[in-house]
Structures are given as structure tokens and as C-alpha cells.
Amino acid sequence: MKHFIHILSIAxxxxxxxxxxxNKKNMENETIIRFETNKGDIKVKLYNETPQHRDNxxxxxxxxxxxxxxxxxxxxxxxxxxxxxxxxxxxxxxxxGEGDTGYTIPAEFVYPHYFHKxxxxxxxxxxxxxxxxxxxxxxxxxxxxxxVFSPEELNEMEANLNRxxxxxxxxxxxxxxMKEIYKLRKSNDIDSLSVLQEKLVAEAxxxxxxxxxxxxxEQKQAYTTVGGTPHLDGSYxxxxxxxxxxxxxxxxQEVKTNRADRPTEDVIxxxxxxxx
Length: 276
Description:
There is one protein chain. Strands 1-2-9-6-8-4-3-10 form an eight-stranded antiparallel barrel. A two-stranded antiparallel ribbon has the order 5-7. It has two domains: 29-148 and 226-274, Cyclophilin (Beta Barrel), CATH 2.40.100.10; 152-210, no CATH class. 39% of the residues lie in helices and 18% in strands. Helix 3 packs across helix 5 (190-210). It has 276 residues and is an alpha+beta fold.
């Protein structure tokens, strides 16, 4: 047994060495973007594992799309959001957040490898009711600030997310029965409604149990130390992270905002450039 473990250890060491070499190569090839703002500079790296989001942001940066836009939505202990083209030279009373490119990007979830830890760069999007495929905005993004959670809070959140999964499964399963449900309600057939509901709940729970939500060790470590927004995991595409200037992100999240979460004094993205 000791001989086997020794051989296994050597094999793992070789595999890890090769893997680390490949990871280093991938990291060297990662694109770095610099956001020059009136609060300071923020550098982010774009993940190669989310190529459509990476390439789209590179294209927009090269076009100067983000130059002069604002961080138009700021929520302390949650995130700072930017990329709305309508925010350029916007008057103080203008409602922002609807501007876009006219196209969306398919979701690229590399989860749980990439998640909503503090400093994560993710794509904004329309809500599930009009966007069930969770497609990303063509230009709007946010940087996570979040908060630190206790292990107990993460356990409760995990349970809530699993309950949400069951509900989503139930809603999906119930959709083909809507005409029948309507007729049963109209006829006040409570017994038949209860039977159907119990059947769909059982099916939804069985489906959800096949792939339950569970935070990884890495997620738990991040969320209980640096913090983040774990309830967004698996719902929004994370496609990069801050490498320098997290203190600037912190500074931005502290600004005063109005009822629409827009800073009362503009936080301007003066220029965005590609570092490599």
C-alpha cells in the first residue's frame, strides 16, 4: 500500500506540474484591461474560458465604446455597474441602465470554477422573466464588492438556493398544465388541484435532487474571508476579475447615491485600454 501511495504521489506531482505549466501559459495569455476613472485606475483580467464575453469586451474597448461612460449604478456591499452607452454626458436626472448594443451574448457559466467573489467581473443582463436563457448584455457589466458571510449564513443560503431550484423546476413542469389548472380552479376542484400539485412537487424535488446546489471549498473560503455575492452564482456570467485597483472599487462603492442607485456625483470611466 505504501508503494502504491508513493507511485500515486509521483503521478500526481507530475500531473500538477504539467497542469501548473499550462495554467501559467494561460495566465500569460490573459487579456488585461485598464479602466481609468476619476476615482483611480482599475485593472481586470479577462478569462480565456469565457471567450465570447472576452472577445466582445476587447472589441468594445478597441472601438472606444466605454470611454466617457459612467458607473451608473452603485450599491454598497453589493456591486458597481457600468457600461451603459446612454450614460455618456447624461444629465443628473436621467434614468440610466437601459442602454445597450442591440445584441446579447450567450451565457458562459464556468461554474463553480469562477464565481462571485469580491472583485469578480460579471455581465449584467435582463431578468429571467424575459430572458430565461440568462443571456448577457452586450456591454453592461458589474464588479462585485459584496459582503463577508459566516459559515452558518452560507449553509442557509445553500438551502434557500436549493429551494429556489425546486420552485424553478416546479414552474417548468407546471407550464404544460396551465389550461388544466385554469379549468380546475374555475370549477373549484380543490381535490384534483391538490393531487396535481403533489405530483408536480414530487417530480420537481426528484429532478432537483439529481444536481443539488452546493458551495465548493474554494467558494466557502472566499465568501467567509474576502466576501462576495454568492446568491448570484450560476445566474450571471463571471468573465474576469480585478487584478489591481480593488481599493478604487471600494472607493466607488462608498459614494453617495440617489434612489435609483446612481451616484450623485458622476463616477466617470474616462478611458479603457488593453494592457496586453
